[in-house]
Amino acid sequence: MTKGWMYYLSQGLLKVYSSNSYGYDRVIAFLKDDNIFGLDCFDPDQPSVVTIECVTDSWVMPLQSEMLTGIMRESPDFACDLVAYYAKVMRQLCFDTENQSINDAKVRLVNFLYLYAESSGDDRIAMSQQNLAAAANCSRSSIARICTQLKEAGLIRVHGRGLTVLDRERLKAFCRL
């Protein structure tokens, strides 16, 4: 339990998800370098509502909520930056909710691949098909089928544990953003 603790992700890849009573996971986000996570624990009397798992080796720095409150009081600019970051997270959650409820599995995966590559500046996406399935909210077998289609179209190259986007602009043409 991370009650009262938040973390700064300096380096790595994390999966943020929640689980239901049937054991199904719903991915909320994949976080990369330079992110704060565990903000749902800002209130030290409340436990975290999500599970956070390292997908790759990661370097994180723990922060107690009192420490973050002190930094915000000393630096109003930091407080403004944190609010802007939190607003960005909220917009992303709204986009994800709309994306998951309207689009089919192929569009959800293509949206994820494009946005992930665009935001990270890296066309290599080192995620298993299971993690991609969780991100697109569909089965691993659907991901395998869609990846085969994208590979045949020359949009991605699949390797070991992950894939590489070969043509970001062509991939974007399949997106519904």
Automatic annotation (TrEMBL):
Pfam families: cNMP_binding (PF00027), HTH_Crp_2 (PF13545)
PROSITE patterns the UniProt entry points to: CNMP_BINDING_3, HTH_CRP_2
Lipid metabolism keyword on record: no
Origin: domain of life: Bacteria
Domain Cyclic nucleotide-binding span(s) in chain numbering: 6-89
A GO MF label: DNA binding
A single BP term in Gene Ontology: regulation of DNA-templated transcription
UniProt keyword annotations, A-Z: DNA-binding, Transcription, Transcription regulation
HTH crp-type domain segment(s): 103-169
Keyword field contains Transcription: yes
Protein name: Crp/Fnr family transcriptional regulator
Organism whose genome encodes this protein: Candidatus Allofournierella pullicola
